Each structure stands twice: as structure tokens, then as C-alpha cells.
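Predict structure. Chain length: 274.
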Amino acid sequence: MSSQNRLHALDAVRAFALLAGVVLHATMSFFLPIPAKDVSQSATLALVFSAIHPWRMTTFYLIAGLFARLVMEKRGARGFAADRGKRILVPLIAGWVVLAPLTIGALIWGISRTLDPAAREAMSASAAAGSGPGAFPLTHLWFLYYLVIFYAVLLAVRGVFAKLDARGRISGLVDKAVRPLLRSYFAPLVVGAPLFAVLGFDQRIVLMGGIPTPDGSLIPQVPALVGFGTAFALGWFVHRQLGLLAELRTRWIGHLAIGAALFAAYHTVPGIEP
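Prediction complete.
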């Protein structure tokens, strides 16, 4: 497969993750104490949310890393920066100008209608306490903000390695490590190790059911950088060896079975979920 070709199967995966996000957000009012809380609460929809939330954004960033190298190979560093600026940075800024006021306005309107005065006062105090250096309402566009960060880091690291590793020896060693890893069932454990080191004993991963959404600050949050950054970097190196996608495809049933078993254990075995 040429690096110039479009990977339509991964476009389909990305579209599936996007549609899963619609389902995920639609479930939230049925089990979370949000301003749009429905009077009919549902434990089943809470499980649906829990089944989607941990992997969806990680999938986006893995695919973003893979396509980032595809664009880099096709257009070079300058063309890559111009393309990502047009496709990611401009939508981030323009989208925030349009969507953030609407989102924040809807949130305030919902709070004013659903919470009693004491609860509103407590929420206002909590929001004031949580506003610190870098506080900024990125809202749902936070994922574009982190993509911009990863692209900037990528360009900087690539520039350094172009001088220090002109012959590609270090990249070759990484390729040799990635190849046998993704050909085994141990890949999720190894790839997830950095995130576990950062968030494994943090109660936020229990409360959020995954990486805490970094939508309230311009200061990059460590769990998001580590978790989503690992996925982005893995996507980059998978593109260096596209044959690995076929390796992953041959074991999808096994990975799905392991994931389903761990999901069931998390929700049923005493002591795993507080």
C-alpha cells in the first residue's frame, strides 16, 4: 500500500467512533447529575456509556497519529503544518467562537431551571475555586486543542531527530520493538502502562470512567498528554509499518473477548470498582 493512498477502512473506524460519541452523549442525561438530567434514570444506559467512553477518544488520537505521518510523507513538514493549520487550528478557533457561547449559555440556562438556589450557590463556589491559571472553557473542542499540541510536539521532535538520527537508526529500533508487540496480545498492557503510571491510582479514573476530560484549562493536563499522546505516537509508528494493521485484524476477536471480560469484571467483581 502506498503512503499516498487513502485508508478507507480507518475512515470508517473514525466514523464509527464519531457515531458512538453521539450515543455516548445521548446517554448522559439518564444517569449523570447534569442540568439536562432526565426524570427516568437508567443503569443500562450508564453501562452503555461506560462501554464506549474508555476507548473512543483514544481511537481518534491513534488514527490521527497514523494519518499525521501519511500527510507528512505526502506534503513534507511545511505542507503538513499548513494543512493541519487549515483543517484543525482554524476550525478550533472558529468553532469555539460559535459553539462555546451557545454551550455555556445552555449550561447556565439548564442550571437555573433545574437546581435549587443552594445547589446553584455551591456550584458557583466550586467553579470559582476551580478557576486558576490557564482556566478556559474549551468545551467539546478540547480534542482539537490537544491535536494542535501533539502536532507542534511532532514537528519539534521530528526536526531534532532529522539532525540527530539522520540514518534512522533510532526509528528502526522503535520499529523493531513495535512489530512484535502488536503481533501479540500483550500490546494493550504495554501501551497502557504509561497511562497507568500516571492515573492508575487516581480516583478520577473511577469517577470519570476513563481519562478525565481536559476541557477547562489551556494548561495541558498530564493524564490527557500521556494517554492520548501514547495513542498518537503509536499511530505514527503503525503507519511506518502498515502491514501491522493486518496483524491486528487477525486477532480482533481475541482482543474483543479480553476487553469484554475485563469490562464485565470491572462492573461485577467486588473490590475492582469502588
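Summary: The mean pLDDT is 87.
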